[in-house]
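Retro notes - structure team

What went well: the batch runner handled both jobs without manual restarts.
What didn't: labels got mixed up in the shared folder, which is why I'm recording both outputs here explicitly, each with its sequence directly above its tokens.

Job 1
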Amino acid sequence: MNIQQHSLTAAAALAIVAVGWTLFQGRADRPKLSLPRPVAITRLAPVAVPPTARDILDSGALLDLRAAQETQLRALDATWARDSTAIQAQLDAATADFSRFMDEKRGRGRTSVQEVQRRSAGISELSTALRERRQIHAEAAAAILTHWQRTRLGEVTKTVAAGGQR
């Protein structure tokens, strides 16, 4: 083999390698760059709302409630209605105040995120307090039921949440 043939063979080999490498790069599955999503932006699954004494009383036929249980649940429901009314009124007032604030700012221009967060903090605190009190109330209502009734209530609640009953 003379020098010309040797150079031509080397050039052809390099060309084949270059073409193969280029084609391979086009087909290679490259991992996509994924940035971690901020927790505040991701949507959380809705939390199941625990049934109140009123919800349990409304499901009384399905749960085969005894008279003593119905009496206890009615008393608990009256207490819940009295206790939750005050905090619900405060929450409604805070929500209306925040809505007025946002309407004003929409009409006049922009506002800072910090100001919006500061103004909505009261709503968040009241919502948290109401949710915690409802949880305590729901646990007290569930404690009145037997194990079978609590299990049955869980089944009924799942059916209603999934759209099984209207």
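Job 2
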Amino acid sequence: MTDSRLRELERRYRETGARDDQLAWLHERARVSGRRADALRLAVAAYDPDALSKVVRELLEQRIPRGRPAREGARPDPYAVFDELRARIEGAIGFAPSWLNFPSPLVWGKIPSYCDQVRDQVEAHRGRLERIFRTSDAHAAAAGEEQLRRAARELIDWVVEFTHCDDAWYGDAQWVLKVLQEDVGADLSEQEEDEFDLVIQAQFRSWVSPSERAVDAVVD
């Protein structure tokens, strides 16, 4: 019965393309599978910018009264604010980038401008997650390892394009490929993750576009 309900919800969404139908399908998919990747797909689709703004503003206003610079001795520890901010964002919307602009503006009480910065970064991160899922879906007909290989090649090219192979760009490739692996069900053990990280670091270099051989080594 659950499978038939899931298929019906997917069919309805494919027919209508409506956001409510998409969320109903993804919610059921995440509930049935229990997979973190499906929960992440749901969170990305259900993203609510108002919920994000609310949680960011509430935290910052707890630390600094709006419009009033903090006194020297009363300024918040930016590191502590940063860690708590990421945790609250993830709790509120289901995902958060690994890095946000450092909250130094807090010491001057510029909360609205900092909220805008955070929103822009979160939405950019969401856009990248959407790209990973679209690429994964585009190669779904191949299934299994072949799906993973084809999607991984396309995503590595995309990471090269948006990072311009800047300093430590391979960290973005690492993250993107791990999300892809989870999405296609190729979950890695802790040891396998460590080995994968070593392959990435051995094959990709800052400021250098990867060779075909390097991409092959990572994809395989």
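One thing worth noting from job 2: The radius of gyration is 20 Å.
We'll revisit the folder naming next retro.
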